[in-house]
Amino acid sequence: MILIADGGSTKVDWIALDDDKKEAFRTRTRGLNPAILTEQELYDRINHNFELTRFKDQIYKIYFYGAGCGTDKANHKLKNVFEQIFSKAKVVVKEDMLAAVYAASAGKEAIVCILGTGSNSCYYDGKEMHQNVVSLGYILMDEASGNYFGKRLLQDYYYKKIPDEIAKSFEENYQVNPDEIKRNLYQEDSPNAYLGQFAEFMFKHKESDYIHDLIKSGFSEFFEKRVLPYNKPNVPIYFIGSIAYFFEDILEEVAQKYKLQIAGVIRRPINNLIRYHQQKMG
Length: 282
Prior knowledge:
Elements: E1 2-7, E2 11-17, E3 23-30, H1 39-47, H2 50-54, E4 61-66, H3 72-85, E5 90-95, H4 96-104, E6 110-115, E7 119-124, E8 129-130, H5 146-158, H6 164-173, H7 178-186, H8 191-196, H9 199-204, H10 209-227, E9 237-240, H11 242-246, H12 248-257, E10 262-266, H13 270-280
Parallel strand pairs: 1-4, 4-5, 6-9, 9-10
Antiparallel strand pairs: 1-2, 2-3, 6-7, 7-8
Protein backbone atom coordinates (compact mmCIF):
# COMPACT_ATOMS: atom_id res chain seq x y z
CA MET A 1 0.00 0.00 0.00
CA ILE A 2 0.95 3.62 -0.39
CA LEU A 3 0.02 6.05 2.38
CA ILE A 4 -1.00 9.64 1.60
CA ALA A 5 -1.44 12.29 4.27
CA ASP A 6 -2.66 15.87 4.39
CA GLY A 7 -1.16 17.20 7.58
CA GLY A 8 -2.18 20.32 9.47
CA SER A 9 -1.18 21.55 12.89
CA THR A 10 -4.52 20.46 14.37
CA LYS A 11 -5.13 17.15 12.59
CA VAL A 12 -3.81 14.87 9.85
CA ASP A 13 -6.01 12.98 7.37
CA TRP A 14 -4.47 9.69 6.14
CA ILE A 15 -5.62 7.47 3.27
CA ALA A 16 -3.98 4.23 2.13
CA LEU A 17 -4.28 2.99 -1.45
CA ASP A 18 -3.66 -0.61 -2.50
CA ASP A 19 -1.98 -1.69 -5.75
CA ASP A 20 -5.32 -1.48 -7.55
CA LYS A 21 -5.53 2.22 -6.60
CA LYS A 22 -8.47 1.48 -4.31
CA GLU A 23 -8.81 2.87 -0.82
CA ALA A 24 -7.61 0.36 1.79
CA PHE A 25 -8.34 2.48 4.85
CA ARG A 26 -8.49 6.05 6.07
CA THR A 27 -7.79 7.43 9.51
CA ARG A 28 -6.95 10.63 11.36
CA THR A 29 -4.33 11.63 13.91
CA ARG A 30 -3.57 14.77 15.84
CA GLY A 31 -1.48 17.38 14.02
CA LEU A 32 2.15 16.63 13.13
CA ASN A 33 3.87 19.99 12.73
CA PRO A 34 7.63 19.31 12.98
CA ALA A 35 8.37 23.00 13.45
CA ILE A 36 6.60 22.87 16.81
CA LEU A 37 6.64 19.27 18.08
CA THR A 38 9.61 17.21 19.26
CA GLU A 39 10.54 13.94 17.56
CA GLN A 40 9.14 12.02 20.52
CA GLU A 41 5.82 13.86 20.32
CA LEU A 42 5.63 13.21 16.59
CA TYR A 43 6.46 9.54 17.10
CA ASP A 44 3.82 9.09 19.82
CA ARG A 45 1.04 10.71 17.81
CA ILE A 46 1.65 8.35 14.89
CA ASN A 47 2.40 5.24 16.92
CA HIS A 48 -0.78 5.56 19.00
CA ASN A 49 -2.99 5.23 15.92
CA PHE A 50 -4.29 1.68 15.55
CA GLU A 51 -4.71 1.65 11.75
CA LEU A 52 -1.24 3.06 11.06
CA THR A 53 0.58 0.65 13.36
CA ARG A 54 -1.55 -2.30 12.23
CA PHE A 55 -0.54 -1.90 8.59
CA LYS A 56 2.91 -0.34 9.00
CA ASP A 57 4.74 -3.32 7.46
CA GLN A 58 2.52 -3.24 4.36
CA ILE A 59 3.29 0.39 3.54
CA TYR A 60 5.98 0.72 0.86
CA LYS A 61 5.67 4.46 0.15
CA ILE A 62 4.50 7.49 2.13
CA TYR A 63 3.57 10.87 0.70
CA PHE A 64 3.19 13.34 3.56
CA TYR A 65 2.19 16.93 2.89
CA GLY A 66 2.31 18.92 6.07
CA ALA A 67 2.26 22.25 7.88
CA GLY A 68 5.70 23.21 9.11
CA CYS A 69 7.48 21.06 6.50
CA GLY A 70 8.83 23.93 4.44
CA THR A 71 12.42 23.81 5.76
CA ASP A 72 15.07 21.09 5.42
CA LYS A 73 15.50 20.73 9.18
CA ALA A 74 11.79 20.21 9.90
CA ASN A 75 11.43 17.98 6.86
CA HIS A 76 14.30 15.75 7.99
CA LYS A 77 12.95 15.51 11.54
CA LEU A 78 9.56 14.21 10.41
CA LYS A 79 11.08 11.91 7.79
CA ASN A 80 13.29 10.37 10.46
CA VAL A 81 10.25 9.63 12.63
CA PHE A 82 8.40 8.00 9.72
CA GLU A 83 11.39 5.82 8.88
CA GLN A 84 11.53 4.57 12.47
CA ILE A 85 7.88 3.45 12.36
CA PHE A 86 7.46 2.48 8.69
CA SER A 87 10.80 0.71 8.23
CA LYS A 88 9.91 -0.74 4.80
CA ALA A 89 8.62 2.49 3.26
CA LYS A 90 10.19 5.12 1.07
CA VAL A 91 9.20 8.45 2.61
CA VAL A 92 8.47 11.71 0.77
CA VAL A 93 7.77 14.76 2.95
CA LYS A 94 6.59 18.00 1.33
CA GLU A 95 4.95 21.14 2.68
CA ASP A 96 1.15 21.38 2.81
CA MET A 97 1.17 24.15 0.22
CA LEU A 98 2.06 21.61 -2.47
CA ALA A 99 -0.88 19.39 -1.48
CA ALA A 100 -3.15 22.39 -1.79
CA VAL A 101 -1.82 23.03 -5.30
CA TYR A 102 -2.38 19.41 -6.37
CA ALA A 103 -5.87 19.42 -4.85
CA ALA A 104 -7.06 22.71 -6.31
CA SER A 105 -5.32 23.63 -9.53
CA ALA A 106 -5.82 20.51 -11.70
CA GLY A 107 -2.32 21.20 -13.01
CA LYS A 108 -3.24 24.63 -14.36
CA GLU A 109 -2.04 28.13 -13.52
CA ALA A 110 -3.52 29.33 -10.23
CA ILE A 111 -3.01 31.23 -7.01
CA VAL A 112 -3.61 28.76 -4.20
CA CYS A 113 -4.16 29.82 -0.60
CA ILE A 114 -4.43 27.95 2.70
CA LEU A 115 -6.64 29.33 5.45
CA GLY A 116 -6.83 26.75 8.22
CA THR A 117 -5.13 26.61 11.62
CA GLY A 118 -2.26 28.32 9.74
CA SER A 119 -2.18 30.24 6.49
CA ASN A 120 -0.04 30.46 3.37
CA SER A 121 -0.22 31.13 -0.36
CA CYS A 122 1.60 30.46 -3.61
CA TYR A 123 1.46 31.10 -7.34
CA TYR A 124 1.50 27.93 -9.44
CA ASP A 125 2.51 28.47 -13.07
CA GLY A 126 1.31 25.03 -14.20
CA LYS A 127 4.66 23.38 -13.50
CA GLU A 128 6.36 25.05 -10.56
CA MET A 129 5.19 26.56 -7.27
CA HIS A 130 6.38 30.10 -6.44
CA GLN A 131 6.01 31.89 -3.09
CA ASN A 132 6.55 35.58 -2.61
CA VAL A 133 7.24 35.16 1.11
CA VAL A 134 8.64 32.29 3.18
CA SER A 135 6.26 31.66 6.07
CA LEU A 136 7.68 32.16 9.56
CA GLY A 137 4.73 30.49 11.24
CA TYR A 138 2.06 31.32 13.75
CA ILE A 139 3.89 33.87 15.91
CA LEU A 140 5.01 36.26 13.16
CA MET A 141 2.74 35.49 10.20
CA ASP A 142 -0.27 33.23 9.45
CA GLU A 143 -2.57 36.15 8.65
CA ALA A 144 -6.30 35.27 8.73
CA SER A 145 -5.63 31.77 10.04
CA GLY A 146 -7.38 30.06 12.93
CA ASN A 147 -4.53 30.86 15.30
CA TYR A 148 -4.43 34.48 14.06
CA PHE A 149 -8.11 34.95 14.87
CA GLY A 150 -7.68 33.11 18.18
CA LYS A 151 -5.01 35.62 19.21
CA ARG A 152 -7.19 38.54 18.14
CA LEU A 153 -10.16 37.17 20.06
CA LEU A 154 -8.17 36.68 23.28
CA GLN A 155 -6.59 40.11 22.94
CA ASP A 156 -9.95 41.79 22.43
CA TYR A 157 -11.46 39.89 25.35
CA TYR A 158 -8.76 41.06 27.75
CA TYR A 159 -8.76 44.61 26.36
CA LYS A 160 -12.57 44.56 26.84
CA LYS A 161 -13.28 45.26 23.18
CA ILE A 162 -15.74 42.36 22.77
CA PRO A 163 -19.48 43.15 23.07
CA ASP A 164 -20.86 42.04 26.44
CA GLU A 165 -23.15 39.34 25.04
CA ILE A 166 -20.34 37.69 23.09
CA ALA A 167 -17.91 38.04 26.00
CA LYS A 168 -20.38 36.28 28.27
CA SER A 169 -20.80 33.42 25.79
CA PHE A 170 -17.01 33.20 25.47
CA GLU A 171 -16.68 32.84 29.25
CA GLU A 172 -19.31 30.10 29.28
CA ASN A 173 -17.53 28.07 26.60
CA TYR A 174 -13.86 28.41 27.54
CA GLN A 175 -11.50 28.67 30.47
CA VAL A 176 -10.53 32.33 30.32
CA ASN A 177 -8.50 32.78 33.48
CA PRO A 178 -4.99 34.02 32.65
CA ASP A 179 -3.17 31.05 34.21
CA GLU A 180 -5.06 28.60 32.00
CA ILE A 181 -4.47 30.66 28.87
CA LYS A 182 -0.75 31.08 29.58
CA ARG A 183 -0.39 27.38 30.33
CA ASN A 184 -1.83 26.48 26.92
CA LEU A 185 0.24 29.12 25.14
CA TYR A 186 3.60 28.62 26.84
CA GLN A 187 3.66 25.12 28.32
CA GLU A 188 1.61 22.83 26.08
CA ASP A 189 2.92 21.30 22.85
CA SER A 190 0.59 22.89 20.25
CA PRO A 191 -0.18 26.54 21.09
CA ASN A 192 -1.18 27.25 17.48
CA ALA A 193 -3.81 24.51 17.57
CA TYR A 194 -5.04 25.83 20.93
CA LEU A 195 -5.51 29.28 19.40
CA GLY A 196 -7.13 27.76 16.32
CA GLN A 197 -9.90 26.11 18.36
CA PHE A 198 -11.58 29.48 18.93
CA ALA A 199 -12.56 29.64 15.25
CA GLU A 200 -15.56 27.41 16.03
CA PHE A 201 -16.80 29.99 18.53
CA MET A 202 -16.38 32.73 15.96
CA PHE A 203 -18.39 30.79 13.41
CA LYS A 204 -21.26 30.43 15.89
CA HIS A 205 -21.31 34.22 16.28
CA LYS A 206 -20.47 35.18 12.70
CA GLU A 207 -23.69 37.18 12.32
CA SER A 208 -22.53 39.70 14.93
CA ASP A 209 -21.00 42.91 13.62
CA TYR A 210 -17.97 42.41 15.87
CA ILE A 211 -17.08 38.94 14.51
CA HIS A 212 -17.88 39.94 10.93
CA ASP A 213 -15.57 42.96 11.15
CA LEU A 214 -12.84 40.90 12.82
CA ILE A 215 -12.93 38.25 10.07
CA LYS A 216 -13.13 40.86 7.34
CA SER A 217 -10.11 42.69 8.74
CA GLY A 218 -8.06 39.48 8.85
CA PHE A 219 -9.01 38.49 5.31
CA SER A 220 -8.13 41.96 4.05
CA GLU A 221 -4.69 41.66 5.64
CA PHE A 222 -4.24 38.26 4.00
CA PHE A 223 -5.14 39.55 0.54
CA GLU A 224 -2.82 42.53 0.89
CA LYS A 225 0.15 40.48 2.08
CA ARG A 226 -0.40 37.09 0.47
CA VAL A 227 -2.40 37.54 -2.75
CA LEU A 228 -2.00 41.01 -4.24
CA PRO A 229 1.84 40.91 -4.30
CA TYR A 230 1.73 38.16 -6.96
CA ASN A 231 0.20 40.76 -9.30
CA LYS A 232 -1.82 38.16 -11.19
CA PRO A 233 -5.31 39.73 -11.38
CA ASN A 234 -6.66 37.35 -14.03
CA VAL A 235 -5.36 34.10 -12.54
CA PRO A 236 -7.97 31.93 -10.73
CA ILE A 237 -7.68 31.94 -6.93
CA TYR A 238 -8.41 28.85 -4.85
CA PHE A 239 -8.70 28.58 -1.08
CA ILE A 240 -8.14 25.48 1.03
CA GLY A 241 -9.04 25.01 4.70
CA SER A 242 -11.74 25.32 7.33
CA ILE A 243 -11.44 29.09 7.90
CA ALA A 244 -11.97 29.78 4.20
CA TYR A 245 -14.79 27.24 4.04
CA PHE A 246 -16.81 28.38 7.07
CA PHE A 247 -16.39 32.09 6.38
CA GLU A 248 -16.68 31.84 2.59
CA ASP A 249 -19.29 34.59 2.37
CA ILE A 250 -16.98 37.11 4.08
CA LEU A 251 -14.07 35.86 1.97
CA GLU A 252 -16.08 36.59 -1.18
CA GLU A 253 -16.96 40.02 0.17
CA VAL A 254 -13.29 40.88 0.68
CA ALA A 255 -12.28 39.46 -2.71
CA GLN A 256 -14.83 41.70 -4.40
CA LYS A 257 -13.34 44.70 -2.59
CA TYR A 258 -10.07 43.95 -4.41
CA LYS A 259 -11.92 43.12 -7.67
CA LEU A 260 -10.78 39.49 -7.55
CA GLN A 261 -12.74 36.31 -8.28
CA ILE A 262 -12.47 33.19 -6.14
CA ALA A 263 -12.55 30.09 -8.34
CA GLY A 264 -13.19 27.59 -5.56
CA VAL A 265 -13.07 26.85 -1.83
CA ILE A 266 -12.19 23.36 -0.59
CA ARG A 267 -12.56 22.48 3.07
CA ARG A 268 -10.29 19.42 3.06
CA PRO A 269 -7.99 18.67 0.12
CA ILE A 270 -7.45 14.99 0.89
CA ASN A 271 -9.98 13.55 -1.60
CA ASN A 272 -8.65 15.67 -4.47
CA LEU A 273 -5.12 14.76 -3.40
CA ILE A 274 -6.02 11.07 -3.59
CA ARG A 275 -7.29 11.48 -7.16
CA TYR A 276 -4.01 13.14 -8.09
CA HIS A 277 -2.01 10.18 -6.74
CA GLN A 278 -4.34 7.63 -8.31
CA GLN A 279 -3.63 9.22 -11.68
CA LYS A 280 0.11 9.12 -10.98
CA MET A 281 -0.13 5.38 -10.21
CA GLY A 282 -1.15 4.87 -13.86
